[in-house]
Amino acid sequence: xxxxxxxxxxxxxxxxxxxxxxxxxxxxxxxxxxxxxxxxxxxxxxxxxxxxxxxxxxxxxxxxxxxxxxxxxxxxxxxxxxxxxxxxxxxxxxxxxxxxxxxxxxxxxxxxxxxxxxxxxxxxxxxxxxxxxxxxxxxxxxxxxxxxxxxxxxxxxxxxxxxxxx
Length: 166
Known about the structure:
Elements: H1 3-45, H2 48-83, H3 88-120, H4 133-165
Helix pairs in contact: 1-2, 2-3, 3-4
């Protein structure tokens, strides 16, 4: 890779970092405003007990997107580190682990936990499992990314050990 290609790559990584920050801030603000406006609307029209339930429902629905936004934030953070000259392998390994955890937790929560929590507070009826193909897919991809991050970490340690031998 030539020096101009490296400079261009780092600049694109920095731009991607700011795109990730923009996405997290705007989507996070929209999630927050949606929950607050919905809670205030219910608070002004209904009893305080219903208000608390509605606010809790909003928080339960917002948890998977918050996990996914953390994954986007982690990718942006890794791109920012690469744009500043950090070595590619450690930045990517760390990002893969964090993104994997975020996607996995968000996917598992949306498939297994969210429907049951909503049933417990009386906001939903139905089965114990929500057949959410995107949630299942994100959970599986998250697990795979987490494992790939661990593989890259292990490869880095093996490479360092081999470098010491030579």
